[in-house]
Specification:
The chain is built from 18 helices and 29 strands. Strands 3, 4, 5, 6, 7, 8, 9, 10, 11, 14 and 15 form an 11-stranded mixed sheet that branches. Strand 21, helix 12 and strand 22 form a beta-alpha-beta unit. Helix 2 runs parallel beside helix 3 and helix 9 packs antiparallel against helix 10. Bound molecules: zinc ion. The site of zinc ion has 8 residues, from loops.
């Protein structure tokens, strides 16, 4: 069959029907309702364009225009093998059920092209039609991306793809490689962006024409891109770059827009064939600007408390912009803003945790009190000099941290509810020997690098003495701490540090208190995040400045991990103060085995002493997860 003469937008206007369950406006497709989509669609059926890339805000209808419409077009006009890729196999199946199947059902021109659901030739992950087929793969599975050659590859939501699909490398490259046998291949890549430096869509669109949507000013006619920063958030008027008049959204959107290429030729002066489109949520006909304003206000409030997730989501999904990581180092002078605490434990503190770092010849511990919204008060930074491969420093650690009793302003007593001890590197077996009898109050941890790992990444038992060992996503924890160290206003997220009331005239500062000296704060400044290249991607890594010590960072990380251990009874937004009764607990606090009995009892419950050999194996397997959970928490 010769290639069709009609364009994708013409086909959609003729044959595509939007299904009620998946579209804001259902019924016959009308390209004029979404004028910015016409050129994107027609580029997809333009035989001179090998590749189309769209970086977009969420819910702009691009999945319909750039993924579903091409499938329908090729079924009717130009049959061929097609591969559609979603971030995971499960998402591909959901796409098949929730988006593709309704289109096939509701568009009369497509009805009957594919056998009925469930029949041979119509499976979730593969549908055949006369002259071609559609397969649906997940970017997390190299197996689902490889297979027979295809002419058209449609890659949806690529910034949620992993950097590599198993050991096979970049999933985009794997999928695109399947088109190499076709001279008339077509690749379509669509996504909301993620974080600058680690984004697939950022890298792909940089190789295209980079076209932006220009709208005429309703007043002076000057064509320009809409920009969230030029919207007055009180009046919701967007001001013109030229005449500075403000106009409402509907006035701007009524104008006739056009795509303008910012990169029509490449670095060598050659015309760029691959077309790329940036499309902002500001031109979304279905999302009004007051909604964006409210979301922005919420995101900014969260940001002030050190939480970047909302503003990141706002930029990525509403504006279709990359998020630039902020706060790559501590920017403010934490030493100068230290404060005098009114009591040993300031009134805002609800629970106390500690993090212990183990060095060759010393132990370091940061004891931190936590309040609502994770506002925190550093209580004491403990340094114990001594070889951790001997008993003495551990006995001192009991005294200074584990059994330590703090007093509140109203005479109540508090102590460390959970502490995490670093077991990587130095004196590992001594750490396990220390933590095991003190579980669940005291847990051995080890750090795992890597972007995007959950803070509490995994929980296992050690081989040597079956102590609980928790693996931490330290990069995630450091990022979180960095954001909070940069919070400027006391309240949620803010970090308090103590000082003494003695003023040193020479240094023009108050003397240190509770171990928080200049070296401690230099340690907090010792680490910063820089960008590095990995698998051809830029990625962020934490580096320590040469010759700087950074135990203060590590201790802080482990103390936050202690706060995040599940089932630790710490619920900062609803709990009452974690005080304990002096009479009973004083006696217990002096017994270093307190906590040990409870933890070992829990472990023993799951693993009775000396059962038969077969029972033991079975018991061990069964006990593994249950025991880990009950032993720690
Ligand atoms: Zn104007």
């Amino acid at each position: 069959m010769p290639p069709s003469q009609i364009t994708l937008s013409e086909w959609a206007d003729r044959d595509r029907v939007l299904s009620s369950e998946s579209s804001a406006e259902h019924g016959q497709w009308v390209t004029d309702n979404v004028p910015y989509e016409r050129e994107i669609m027609d580029a997809i059926t333009d035989p001179t364009v090998p590749r189309v890339v769209v970086q977009k805000g969420a819910q702009l209808g691009i999945t319909d225009s750039a993924i579903l419409n091409p499938i329908g077009y090729h079924m009717v006009e130009d049959p061929c093998p097609i591969l559609v890729v979603q971030p995971t196999v499960e998402m591909a199946e959901a796409f098949s059920t929730d988006r593709l199947q309704p289109m096939l059902r509701d568009s009369p021109a497509l009805r009957g092209k594919v056998p009925p659901p469930g029949a041979d030739g119509n499976k979730l992950s593969r549908k055949t039609f006369p002259g071609g087929f559609v397969v649906l793969g997940g970017a997390n599975s190299a197996a689902s991306l490889s297979g027979r050659p295809v002419r058209v590859v449609l890659l949806d939501d690529v910034d949620r793809y992993p950097v590599t699909a198993g050991r096979e490398g970049n999933p985009l490259k794997l999928a695109i490689a399947r088109t190499s046998a076709f001279w008339n291949r077509k690749v379509v890549i669509v996504s909301s962006p993620s974080t600058a430096g680690v984004s697939h869509i950022e890298r792909e669109i940089a190789q295209t024409t980079c076209e932006h949507w220009y709208l005429p000013c309703p007043g002076c006619g000057c064509k320009q891109e809409l920009d969230f920063d030029r919207i007055d958030l009180d009046t919701l008027l967007h001001s013109c770059v030229n005449c500075h008049e403000g106009f409402e959204k509907f006035e701007w959107l009524a104008g006739e827009g056009e795509w303008r290429a910012h990169r029509p030729v490449d670095e060598r002066g050659n015309t760029v064939l691959a077309r790329g489109f940036f499309i902002s949520g500001l031109v979304n006909p279905w999302v009004e600007w007051d909604i964006l304003r409210d979301e922005y206000a919420q995101a900014m409030a969260a940001l002030e408390e050190g939480d970047v997730e909302l503003i990141k989501a706002f930029k990525n999904t509403r504006l279709g912009l990359l998020y630039e990581e902020q706060g790559s180092k501590v920017k403010i002078d934490l030493y100068l803003r230290r404060e005098l605490y009114e009591s040993e434990v300031p009134d805002g503190v609800l629970a106390i945790t500690a993090g212990v770092d183990v060095q060759d010849q010393s132990l370091h511990a940061d004891i931190i009190g936590w309040g609502k919204g994770r506002e925190n008060w550093h209580l004491e930074y403990v340094t114990i000099v001594g070889d951790p491969k001997t008993d003495e420093p551990w006995e001192l650690l009991d005294e200074a941290v584990y059994n330590r009793v703090f007093k509140t302003s109203d005479g109540k007593r508090m102590r460390v509810r959970r502490m995490c001890v670093d077991s990587a590197g130095h004196a590992t077996d001594y750490v396990y020997a220390y933590t095991k009898p003190r579980q669940p109050r005291c847990i051995a941890v080890r750090g795992m690098g890597g972007l995007g790992k959950p803070p509490i990444a995994a929980t296992t038992f050690t081989k040597s003495n079956r102590a609980v060992l928790v693996s931490l996503g330290v990069d995630t924890l450091k990022e979180d701490i960095m954001n909070r160290l940069n919070v400027l206003k006391a309240g949620p997220g803010y970090c308090h540090f103590p000082r003494s009331d003695i003023f040193d005239e020479q240094l023009r500062a108050h003397e240190p208190a509770n171990g928080y000296d200049i070296a401690y704060f230099a340690g907090l400044r010792a680490e910063q995040r820089i960008m590095k290249s990995k698998h051809g991607f830029k990625t962020y890594v934490w580096v320590k400045r040469i010759s700087q010590r950074n135990e203060s960072w590590d201790c802080f990380v482990y103390a936050v991990a202690a706060l995040l251990l599940p089932h630790n009874g710490i619920k900062l937004d609803s709990m009452s103060r974690d005080v304990f009764s002096p009479v009973v607990s004083d006696r217990r606090a002096q017994t270093s085995t307190f906590g040990a009995q409870k933890a070992s009892a829990l472990v023993e419950e799951a693993q009775p002493t000396r059962p038969s050999a077969t029972a033991r194996t079975e018991q061990r397997q069964r006990a593994r997860f249950g025991a880990i959970n009950s032993a720690i928490y």
